Amino acid sequence: MKVSQPKRSRWLYLGLGLMLTALILFSILPLATSIWQQSQTNSSTGVTSEAVKRLENQALGYQMILEREPGNLNALQGLLETRLQQGDLTKALIPLEQLAQLQPEQIQYSILLAQSKQQLQDEEGAARIYRNLLAKQPDSLPALKGLSDLYLAQNRPQEAIATVQAAITQSIQAQGNRSDLKNPTNITSLQLLLGEIYLQQERPQEAIALYTAAHQLNPQDFRPVLAQAIVLKQQKQDSQAKPLFDKAVGLAPVEYKEAIKQMAVSTPAASTPKH
Question: Is the dihedral of CA 167, 168, 172, 175 positive or negative?
């Protein structure tokens, strides 16, 4: 019997989210991260009239620079930051789109642009950006994560699964011999992303099977082992989970060992759906 989404354990997904993002190339620029957080804070708390005026003057100054130098990256970044501090995501799209065009190698701008469009209910525009990124780099984890999350938000889980599965297959084929992969870490990250989708769809057995295959493909990566341990513990199978937690601790970099030990002794917040 399945349980509804609100009753699912947040502990499980927090653990998997930490694991998924721990060692993968999925980071927005520090600037983008800070200004995004700042925009959320300003939107929820409001700003003083003095701050409003200061931000308006600041935006005007950057716009004057851009009238003389349309490709000035510093001014574009400054204008983007100001618009987000103002909480005006619509106006932030203008400098963000220019930054994405001027620096296509900086995928973070395109990802932030897609996220912004999704926030503004332009889901097709967001999907188009993700697809364009994937056309250039089919195994791009940020783009796959963004597109699969978009599909899930639209209640299209099978398309999310198919998209990530195709990327995994293509990535393995591109590297040739499965027993001698040149870059197994990125493939493992893609497998973890697919496992996350399975768990969100309450399909833990398929996730466990995927994590087992991921570990066989990349035995030195702690993440698939930890993923199995988390899911088994969530299913109250502590005796099977414990050796996997121990193994994950042994494989993990020093900075993650303590967090894994804490996961091993934590009590799940809710029981896992029974199948």
Answer: positive
- Looking at residue 203, the DSSP 8-state letter turns out to be -
Per-residue confidence (pLDDT) for residue 84, from 0 to 100? 87
Residue 205 lies in a domain: yes
Identify the pLDDT of residue 180.
57
Residues 6+ apart with CB under 8 A from 63: 79
Buried b (16+ CB within 10 A) or exposed e, 195-215: bbbbbbeebbeebbebbeebb
- Residue 123 lies inside a defined structural domain of this protein: no
Q: What mean pLDDT comes out for the span 254-261?
A: 89
> Do residues 215 and 253 lie in contact, with contact meaning Cβ atoms separated by under 8 Å?
no
Name the residue among 170, 249, 178 with its Cα closest to residue 214. 178
Residues spanned by the domain of 258: 1-23+156-275
Total domains in the fold of the chain: 1
Let me know if residue 225 belongs to a domain.
yes
Give the per-residue pLDDT at 185. Answer: 80
Cβ–Cβ < 8 Å for 113, 93: yes
